Amino acid sequence: MRLEGSQETLLITLYAKAMDNRATPSILHDALADDLIRRIDYDFERFGLSDYDIRGLALRSRIIDNWTRAALQSRPDTLVLHLACGLDARVFRVDPSLDVDWIDIDFPQVIQLRRDLLPQRLGRYRTLATNVMEPDWIEKLDNQRPVLVIAEGLFPYLDEYRARELMRRLIDRFPQGGQLLCDVYGRLALRLLRNARMIRATQARIGEWGPAGAAELDTWHPRLQLVDEPDYAELPEMKALPWMQRWLFKVYGRSRWLRSLGRVVRYRF
After folding, report:
1. Taking the model in full, what pTM does it have?
2. Cβ(162)–Cβ(98) under 8 Å?
3. pLDDT tens digits for 55-108?
4. 83-103 burial, b if ≥16 CB within 10 A, otherwise e?
5. Which of 58, 96, 145, 235 could disulfide-link to 20, CB 3.0 to 4.6 Å?
6. How many structural domains are present in the chain?
7. Cα separation, 140 vs 136, whole angstroms
8. Distances 265 to 15, 123, 182, 185, 252 between C-alpha atoms, Å
C-alpha cells in the first residue's frame, strides 16, 4: 500500500521512535516501532533525521504518553480518542486496562495498514477508519463520560478554521468535559517545517496557520483552558542524555522565543 502526502509523514515519526529505541538510553522504548521499520520496505534514511529530531519526537510522545496514563489513572472511565494515529503504538506503550475504551482514528488506508502490521489488541480497543474532519463519527460517540483527545502531529496539517471546528464539535459533544493533548507550532516553525528535508521527502502540505502562543487556543471555546506546557529541560529523561543534547534542550526550554516555535501542551475543557 502506497502512502502519499500527509499520510506518508507517519513514517517519519515511526522511524524516529525506532531510532530512539536503538539509542542508549532510549526515551520511549518503542520496540514495536523498531520491529515495524524492519518489516516495511521503505527508504527511511531519505528523511535525514538528526539526533535532535529523533530525541525531540521521542520526548514529545513520552510526554503525551505520561499525560495519558495519568488521565486514565484519575478517571478509568475516560474515552480515549487518538486522532490521526498513524502507526503509533501508543496503546501498547501506555497499556491501559482492557476495560478502557480506546479508539485509534485515521484515514481508511492508514487503518488498514495498522490492522495488517500491528498486533491485535484485546479488550475495548478499536480502530475507526475515517477522516477526522468528517462530522458524523463524533455524533456517534458515547458522551456520558469524560474524553481524552490526543492530537499529536495533527494541527500542522489543518488550517485554523478546520482545527477550531474539530475541537468545537468534540468539546460540545462531551458535556462531562475532558482533556486535549497536542503539539502546536508558530508560523515561523511551520515555514521552517515546510522546507525541512523530512517534509519535502513526502511532499506533504503544511498549513500556514500557527498560534502566537499556547494560550491562544483558549479562545477557541469557552470551556477550553491551557493547564500544562512542560519544559523539556526539566524532564527526568534529560538526565540520561548526552550533555550536548541536554544543553540543546535546555537552551530551547529557557528561550521564550524558541519555545514559541513549537510546544507540547495539555488543555482541559
Report:
1. 0.94
2. no
3. 999 999 999 999 999 999 999 999 999 999 999 999 999 999 999 999 999 999
4. bbbbbbbbbbbbebeeebbbb
5. 58
6. 1
7. 7
8. 23, 29, 6, 11, 15
How does pLDDT run across 14-67, given as a tens digit for each residue? Answer: 999 999 999 999 999 999 999 999 999 999 999 999 998 999 999 999 999 999
C-alpha 8/C-alpha 2 separation (Å) is 8
**Cell 518489516 belongs to residue:** 39
| Integer Cα distance of 210 and 27 in angstroms | 28
Spatial CA neighbour of 10 closest among 111, 119, 135, 115: 111
Number of helices and strands in the chain (H, E): 11, 7
Find cell 517519519 and name the residue. Answer: 12
Q: Please give the sequence-ordered ranges of beta strands (E in DSSP) within the chain, or none if there are none.
A: 79-83, 102-106, 125-129, 147-151, 178-185, 225-228, 262-268
Q: Which residue has the cell 477522516?
A: 131
Least confident interval from 18-22, 89-93, 134-138, 231-235: 231-235
Domain that holds residue 190: 5-268
Tell me how far apart the terminal alpha carbons of the chain are, to the nearest angstrom: 38
Q: Which three cell numbers stand for residue 38?
A: 524492519
The answer to whether the peptide bond before residue 146 is cis (omega within 30 degrees of 0) is no
**What's the CATH number where 136 sits?**
3.40.50.150
Supply φ then ψ for residue 76, to 5 degrees.
-60, -15
CB neighbour list of residue 34: distance below 8 Å, 6 or more residues apart: 17, 18, 21, 22
